[in-house]
Amino acid sequence: MGNPYWGVCPCLPDSLILHFFLREAQFMAYTMADLCWKLSVCFFCYQVVSGRVKKEGHYIAAVYEHESMLSPNPTALVDRQSALELMGRNLDIYEQQVVAAARQGAQIIVFPEDGIHGFNFTRSSIYPYLDFVLHSHFVKWNPCREPYLFNDTEVLQRLSCMALKNKIFLVANLGTKQPCEHTDPHCPSDGRYQFNTNVAFSDDGVLVATYRKHNLYFEYAFDTPPEPDYTLFDTPFAGKFGMFTCFDILFFEPAVNLIRQYKVKQVVYPTAWMNQLPLLSAVEFQQAFATAFNVNILAANIHHPTLGMTGSGIYTPVKSFIYHNMESYGGKLIVAEIPVTTDYETHSESNERFREDLHQSCQTFTSTSPADQVCFKEGEESPGRVSEKGNKQLPPIFYAEMMYDNFTFVPVWEEKGELQDEKRFFYSKLLLQWSSQGSLLSLGENPRGSSIIFWK
């Protein structure tokens, strides 16, 4: 081709020019290699600081206990725009928490049941709060990128965009609607289904799963789906996840059958759970379920202490990261790294509590809702009561109501020994050896002859 510098420096031979360019290219190659190495080191340090470096065989999960903005009058009829404004305030908080979770390296985040729209609606009053969603495994839809495909999908669009922008799997709960024909024997008289629905989005914003709550708890605004949904979605970091909602966890369908039939090891669980002692405390039941079925559970609850609603966590069969707070307000984000595999022994229970220390008083174990009091002052006996033989001080008893059954409890203060109680129709005896570590163990009975052991 001749000398490229001809006319600029015609005195230089082509061989010298070529040698110069080779040296310059070699220098640039070394410089780029050094720069790439430095950048990779810096990126690794950033990953460590931000929590994005994960152990092999583990993933980082997040759940958010949300103090939702509620409608002051949920039975009132409002227009769609007013409903969107209320839901938008909750979604603004969701978006902040998604960003915070992603910064800590979370690969999936779960939000609670009723967290976007609230509760205590009628069938008519909830209608403006409902999004349309197509319950189909055959339609691949990205609401953030394709908002024009369906009407009334504003909430789905925002959730999808949160997942897409932050590259995170996202699970949330909302009310949905679906028109039906009167030829459908299950179609309601108003011509539409209204479902309590979980939705899952992939980290690119695609709607990958929907689940319609099957076991409704006095939710007159919603319909029960004709058949139980067995909902799964796949992730690149932990394989398949199953999901169900709140009250479902107490029933064989679909919760137990989903886990057994599809060999599910990861569960996402939005809930709006009102704690009721002695057996229906949120963290107690969630932890027990994870241990009993040898699964990981990502459980997100609503936070309304005045309604007895708190208790969220990330649970494995052997370790739990939990939050239970009946004394203060505001949401709580929990982020934890957990193993994908759950096939290990479950006897070495270890818990990490995201909570402040609470006084071990009656109020600690009491719902603040007047209708659901657990520790009744009039039901307490004197701390100085003695046994029938008169030679031993007995601990005071307290009462608890669970699902309309009354239980009488005797707290266990000693770490080893025998506890027995004889009632009119039955006799209970408990041999125990345990380490208290600031917890409460008690033996409970009810007139039907049911005996339980309660640990707090």
From TrEMBL:
Reaction equations catalysed: biocytin + H2O = biotin + L-lysine
All residue ranges annotated as the CN hydrolase domain in the record: 73-340
GO molecular function: biotinidase activity
EC number: 3.5.1.12
Keyword annotations of the record: Glycoprotein, Hydrolase, Signal
Record Pfam families: CN_hydrolase (PF00795)
UniProt KW Nuclease keyword: no
Signal sequence interval, chain numbering: none
Gene3D superfamilies: Carbon-nitrogen hydrolase
Keyword Hydrolase part of the UniProt annotation: yes
GO annotation (BP), single: biotin metabolic process
Top-rank EC class of the record's enzyme: hydrolase
InterPro entries in UniProt: Biotinidase-like_euk (IPR012101), Biotinidase/VNN (IPR040154), C-N_Hydrolase (IPR003010), C-N_Hydrolase_sf (IPR036526)
The family this protein is said to belong to: Belongs to the carbon-nitrogen hydrolase superfamily. BTD/VNN family.
Protein's job: Catalytic release of biotin from biocytin, the product of biotin-dependent carboxylases degradation.
Protein name: Biotinidase
Organism from which the protein derives: Athene cunicularia (Burrowing owl)
